[in-house]
Amino acid sequence: MKNVTDFFVSLGYWPSAGSFGFNTDILATNLINLSVVLGVLIFFGKGVLNDLLDNRKQRILSTIRNSEELRKGVIEQLEKARARLQKVEIEADEYRMNGYSEIEREKENLINATCDSLERLENYKNETLHFEQQRAINQVRQRVFQQALQRALGTLNSCLNSELHFRTISANIGTLGAMQEITD
Predict the structure, then answer these.
(1) Is residue 165 exposed (0-12), middle (13-18) or buried (19+ Cβ within 10 Å)?
(2) Where in the cell is it found (predicted)?
């Protein structure tokens, strides 16, 4: 390696023979080399670079178009969803209002039915009480009548003889017979 660098360094000391030779000025040679490399790259790489940039541009435009189409589709879906939501909210309000009115109607029907049942029960209770009172009154009447009849019979038996007794019974039977003919 030392020999190769010595060779290039020794070339720098040679006197230039016309227009051809090695320039040992690093700044000047680098600028020349750099401009040559850039020129070659621009000349040969221009087409490749243009193709790469065109491909990239087409992919970006395609992505933008796809994004726009997706955005439009999403906006349409959003609008449809909003319309469906509004429709469902309206239906829910209608069901709610119908439900409330139905509940109120059922409540009123139940209250009316309960009032009717209570009224029937009250009437039944009053009828039962009236019936029981009448039965109790009739039982008391029957007992009073039986007791009065027994006392009367006891008094009659002790006061009357058999012929008077027989005439009283016959008169009462006749009176009862006349009463029966009047009622028939």
Answers:
(1) middle
(2) Membrane
